[in-house]
């Protein structure tokens, strides 16, 4: 997939659904979207309340910049509002929003990193993390050795080190709980491509977290505290 | 099944989408390979820790501020009507 240059209409147009919604059980969002299309601002505000956190987290995971993520969250919902007539309910409304958020986020990354192109294809060829090298067992409940703030810092630092393409797939699939098919749809990738990136993202994160969570690593927590 | 073949099936194994015939082979490999058993255990913990400790939260006050800003922009047009001022541009103007 080439790096996006703008949110074109074809990106906002819904792709063919991987899993069509059952006609017997329409998603509750469809009624809210219909009301919003008819000019009911409260209905659109409800959709924002439901999905602003997911869109913000997705943008922040990709851009690693809180101000950018706030701007992107605004832009995503405003663009969605402008293009509501293009949403026909063939896919989930949330997946449609995520698709816009991913493209907005990649555009923002590309603007920031003017020296190189940023796209979902980036770093695909790397072999890093494709083969596990660390076979140390972890402590039971290893995260309990760290405070909430320490753990958050470790998780942020670790996921920030992943290539954007891997980070995005892991975020959508494992943090936001999109299905493999929905992730593929949101990113414009094939299902096998999503699976390949997801495997590498999971293995790379595992290798990096192992430093903190493996048996005998208790001293790292203490070292983190002393360095503050 | 060797370790390389096992790794190729790891994503499907985690997602419960593995072919039932292959599942028996996967389980057999896990019983005989401690390294792969560790990889499965620690990868599962990696996923669980990220799911249980989302490092990026949107504070309620920021959520309210963003929602107000979005709704204010939406009032400037109707659904389906373009108005091409991005949030960053709007911020610079203000």
Topology (SSEs and partners):
The complex is a heterodimer of chains A (228) and B (94).
Chain A: H1 9-12, H2 28-37, H3 41-63, H4 66-82, H5 93-112, H6 148-160, H7 164-175, H8 180-187, H9 191-213, H10 218-226
Chain B: H1 3-8, H2 10-14, H3 20-32, H4 34-52, H5 60-74, H6 87-93
Unreliable stretches of chain A (pLDDT < 50, length at least 5) are: 1-10, 17-21
CATH homologous superfamily of the largest domain in chain A, by name? RNA polymerase sigma factor, region 2, helix turn helix motif
Q: Let me know the number of strands of chain B.
A: 0
Count of the separate structural domains of chain B: 2
Q: Radius of gyration of chain A in whole Å, from Cα?
A: 19 Å
C-alpha end-to-end distance of chain B: 63 Å
Largest sheet of chain A: none
Query: How large is the share of residues in beta strands of chain B?
Result: under 5%
| Assembly category | heterodimer
């Amino acid at each position: 997939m080439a790096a996006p240059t703008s949110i074109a209409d074809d990106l906002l147009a819904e792709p063919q659904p991987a899993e069509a919604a059952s006609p017997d059980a329409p998603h509750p969002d469809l009624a809210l979207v219909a009301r919003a299309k008819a000019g009911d601002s409260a209905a659109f505000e409800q959709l924002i309340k439901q999905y602003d956190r997911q869109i913000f987290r997705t943008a922040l995971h990709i851009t690693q910049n809180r101000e950018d993520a706030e701007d992107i969250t605004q832009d995503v919902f405003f663009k969605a509002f402008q293009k509501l007539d293009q949403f026909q309910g063939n896919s989930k409304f949330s997946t449609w929003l995520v698709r816009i958020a991913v493209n907005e986020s990649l555009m923002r990354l590309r603007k920031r990193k003017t020296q190189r192109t940023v796209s979902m294809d980036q770093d695909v060829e790397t072999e890093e993390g494709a083969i596990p090298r660390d076979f140390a067992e972890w402590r039971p409940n290893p995260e309990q050795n760290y405070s909430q703030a320490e753990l958050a810092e470790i998780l942020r630092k670790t996921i920030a080190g992943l290539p954007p393409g891997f980070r995005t797939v892991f975020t959508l699939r494992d943090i936001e709980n999109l299905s493999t098919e929905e992730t593929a749809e949101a990113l414009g990738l094939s299902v096998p491509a999503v699976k390949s990136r997801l495997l590498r993202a999971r293995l790379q994160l595992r290798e990096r977290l192992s430093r903190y969570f493996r048996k005998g690593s208790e001293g790292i927590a203490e070292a983190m505290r002393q360095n503050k | 099944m060797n370790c390389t073949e096992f790794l190729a099936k790891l994503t499907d194994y985690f997602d419960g989408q593995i072919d039932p015939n292959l599942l028996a082979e996967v389980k057999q490999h896990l019983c005989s390979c401690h390294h792969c058993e560790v990889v499965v255990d620690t990868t599962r913990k990696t996923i669980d820790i990220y799911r249980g400790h989302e490092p990026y939260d949107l504070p309620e006050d920021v959520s309210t501020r963003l929602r107000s800003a979005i709704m204010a922009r939406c009032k400037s047009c109707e659904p389906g009507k373009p108005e091409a001022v991005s949030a960053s541009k709007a911020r610079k103007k203000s």
